[in-house]
Write the structure tokens for this entry.
Amino acid sequence: MTQRYITLFLWAFSLSLIPYDAFPAEDEPFRESVIIFNTICAKCHEAECSGRLSFDDAYEASASHIIRHYGKASEKKWLQKELFSILNHMKENCAYYPMQVPVPPKRIWNSEILEKMTILMERNYFIPIGPITPGRYDLELILAKDEKVTVHLVSESFEFVVEDCYQSSDQRLVIPFSIEETENYYVRVYPRKPVQITRLVISTIKKSE
Ligand code: HEC
């Protein structure tokens, strides 16, 4: 092999070692906090838009409250702190905490991407699905086993498009919905018993149907 081929070979080999990772590792802990907040804490604190920030020392005072609602935060000061700042972000900006997650092509989320949008123990999901334009759509979920799940589809301005409980059959669930405003939307799933979502698809319903 000539020098040139060796160089080329080494170059190609080193490229193959670079993993494709749409989620930079440094965002990992914070993304988990955002999902915890947007599934657990959101039940009471969603759309809390007072603009009034909590005092910095309020977080010490609220620690026991946070632990009551999310026991797994008890040994994790950083998690309590992050949940506290996420609440402040919502109060100040009247918005979900931004998540740097790309929307996959054709709006098909595979299990690999979905594993980044869930808290493993509870299997609650919070999935940013990006901007959706007015029209009629199907939201399809494929589950690892049949289960009853509560599904929310909510806009960035906290308007609920879907808010109901569904029983899957043949591990599948299809929920038709209509969008009237172009906005960023989010899917939230609370399974009755923990169950993995292996696929999520948003597809347009054709006019002729
Ligand atoms: C069942 C409803 C409920 C749930 C769930 C809940 N909270 Fe609260 N939380 C409240 C209420 C009510 C208050 C007192 C009123 C207020 O300040 O909003 C409060 C107050 C707080 C405060 C103090 C706010 C301030 O201005 O000093 C923080 C911080 C807080 N919650 C964080 C959380 C976090 C983080 C979670 C999720 C782990 C959570 N809460 C889950 C109802 C809830």
Summary: The longest helix spans residues 28-45. The mean pLDDT is 87.
